[in-house]
Write a structure and sequence with these properties.
globular, 3 domains, about 0% strand, single chain, mainly alpha
Length: about 475
């Protein structure tokens, strides 16, 4: 047999060496290869703190929590503290919290007033506390707060911090994390996605909030006025407010497609509403003396902003149910629509009075009521089969619509004149009403040739463009104008 050529022998030896190396090495996957469309190419921003998915993920969650809840409670089993290494990764992206807390101040000044589901006292004492900040739930909450509070740089909503938070939430799910601060981070990231128009992520994330909260039993907090032995009154109120925030976001995300509303168990007539915001901020001693309101309580301007916002969210949900009703008779739907319209109108008046009483220029419950009422009087958005005639049976609604779009026109004019300083105080809940108002003016111009309506449309577009510096979803009316789709 002839001898093997020297070069062929060398090639075989090299292949054997490579095979040995392959069998003894660990494969490391860089998440940038999978998420190349979402993560910026500037690797210097994320090379060190990025989440390493090559690490082993272990799920030590006690499955008995779901399989036999009674056994879980009686056995004294504890929830695991999962994925603590993620906290260090997120910390590298957030920066030195002890030296730079400007985003915390921004959050509590501009976001907290219209969605106050975080206890400021508990956040400062327990979450920002250096002894607890490296816990993964706390670090996630801090990271998402930074996302929501700060302006977007270079129009990049899919930033390294956002991408890392989403990956961290996925990994926590895989490792069996179920913890209240993580839930609040879920709420915060869904608010970020909603405000910046990141879909379908916003829709899916809010759905995850609902299931995550139910798994923790947070939905029960609005039915029980007594705190558990594990939570004091301040913690119980924070849990209650977190559930109301989820319900509010879950309703609002369906405004653009009301026919796609999922069927969730609605609050009962005895459900407990959030207490007055100013009382809640004062601490636990004041909480024990606070007046408790339920859904059946008469409307007053002293209920507090978030209490009224929660009720506006409930009415919006009832409008969704009404427009999707294919069972009841026309007579019943006529009566129901009239009651809904009157109730929304009453809440609007109380909300505006509350805003004047507390010096609030733009009140979230007012704009949510506007959105609900516009939907109630806009049959084209109902997406139902059959004749459109007499679906509601209400009297002509032009006067009602004119009142709403007139209010939003004044708001848009103020935003366009003062720019970013006014937009910082605007919540995403205002954007939908502004958008619908702009569309109504544009459609009137297209159908009636009303030049004044066109000028009003342009003012609303400028107002929304001012809000887009804070919330990117504000660009929607501009997109309508560019496409010419009315």
């Amino acid at each position: 047999m002839p001898s093997m050529p020297a070069f062929e022998k060398e090639m075989r030896q090299e292949k054997a060496a490579l095979l040995i190396m392959h069998q003894n090495r660990m494969c490391v996957y860089d998440e940038r290869s999978t998420y190349s469309d979402a993560v910026p190419s500037d690797s210097t921003q994320i090379s060190d703190p990025r989440i390493d998915f090559s690490a082993k993920i272990r799920n030590e969650f006690p499955s008995v929590y779901f399989l036999d809840s009674v056994l879980f409670q009686r056995s004294g089993t504890q929830m695991p503290d999962a994925a603590s290494d993620l906290a260090t990764s997120l910390s590298g992206l957030v920066g030195d919290i002890s030296a730079n807390r400007e985003f915390v101040s921004l959050y509590f000044e501009f976001v907290h007033p219209w969605l106050p589901f975080l206890s400021k006292r508990r956040f400062l004492e327990r979450v920002l506390n250096p002894l607890g900040a490296k816990q993964i739930g706390n670090m996630l909450l801090i990271s998402t707060m930074k996302l929501v509070a700060e302006d977007i740089v270079d129009d990049n909503t899919i930033s390294p911090l956002y991408s890392s938070v989403k990956l961290a939430l996925l990994r926590l799910e895989m490792s069996g994390n179920l913890e209240f601060r993580t839930l609040q981070a879920w709420i915060m990231i869904s608010l970020y996605e909603l405000g910046h128009g990141i879909y379908p992520a916003a829709y899916l994330t809010i759905g995850s909030c609902v299931r995550y909260a139910r798994a923790l039993g947070i939905h029960l907090s609005i039915e029980n006025s007594f705190g558990s032995s594990m939570h004091d009154e301040l913690d119980s109120e924070e849990r209650r407010r977190s559930w109301w925030a989820i319900l509010l976001l879950d309703g609002f995300v369906h405004l653009g497609c009301p026919a796609a509303l999922e069927v969730n168990l609605p609050p009962t007539s005895d459900s407990i509403l959030p207490i007055d915001d100013s009382v809640w901020e004062q601490g636990e001693q004041e909480l024990s003396r606070a007046q408790l309101y339920r859904l059946t309580s008469p409307l007053t301007a002293t209920m507090g902003r978030f209490c009224l916002t929660a009720q506006a969210g409930i009415l919006l949900g009832r409008v969704f149910q009404h427009v999707n009703d294919t069972v009841n008779t026309d007579e019943f739907r006529h009566q129901e629509a009239t009651v809904l319209d009157n109730t929304i109108s009453a809440l609007t008046q109380v909300s505006r009075e509350e805003g004047r009483h507390r010096g609030i220029g733009v009140c979230s419950p007012t704009t949510i009521c506007f959105s609900a009422r516009l939907l109630l009087h806009d049959e084209e958005r109902w997406q139902r089969s059959g004749s459109r005639e007499n679906r509601i049976g209400l009297s002509p609604s032009r006067d009602i619509v004119d009142e709403i779009i007139g209010n939003m026109l004044r708001l848009a004019r103020a935003l366009a004149s003062c720019g970013k300083c006014g937009a910082e105080q605007i919540s995403p809940f205002c954007l939908e009403t502004m958008y619908r108002s702009g569309m109504i003016f544009a459609q009137r111009f297209a159908s009636e040739g009303d030049e004044e309506a066109y000028e009003s449309f342009k003012i609303l577009k400028l107002g929304m463009e001012a809000t887009s510096r804070r919330w990117k979803a504000g660009n929607l009316l501009k997109a309508r104008d560019l496409t010419g789709i009315l």
